[in-house]
Amino acid sequence: MSDHRREAFQCADYLMDRLKAEAVFWKREEGPFGTRWIEPTKRDAEDRERWNEEDAGD
C-alpha cells in the first residue's frame, strides 16, 4: 500500500471540484434532443470553495 494513497485521493477530489466549477467544457451533455451545456451549480461552487477554506487554516 502506498504511503501517499490518502493524498492521491485528496488530489483527485480537488481536481474534480475544480473541473466541475470552472471547466465548462466538462459539462456538455448529449442526448436524444441534441446537446446542451450544463452550468455549474451552487453546490459545485461550494465544493470548490471548501478548498480555499482548508488552505486558509494551514
Provide tags for this entry:
58 residues; alpha+beta; two-stranded antiparallel ribbon; 2 helices; 2 strands
Verbal overview:
With 58 residues, the protein is α+β, with helices and mostly antiparallel strands. The protein has one domain (5-56). It has 2 helices and 2 strands, in the order αββα. It has helices spanning 5-22, 42-56, and strands spanning 28-31, 34-37. Strands 1-2 form a two-stranded antiparallel sheet. Strand 1 (28-31) and strand 2 (34-37) form a beta hairpin.
Cα separation of the termini: 27 Å
- Sequence stretches where pLDDT stays below 50 over 5 or more residues: none
Number of domains: 1
Question: How do the SSEs run, as a string of H and E?
Answer: HEEH
Report the helical percentage.
55-70%
Helical segment tally?
A: 2
Q: Can you list the strand order of the major beta sheet?
A: 1-2
β-strand number: 2
Q: The biggest beta sheet, please?
A: 2 strands, antiparallel
Percent range for β-strand residues? 5-15%
Shape: elongated
Average pLDDT figure:
85
Helix vs. strand class: alpha+beta
Radius of gyration: 15 Å
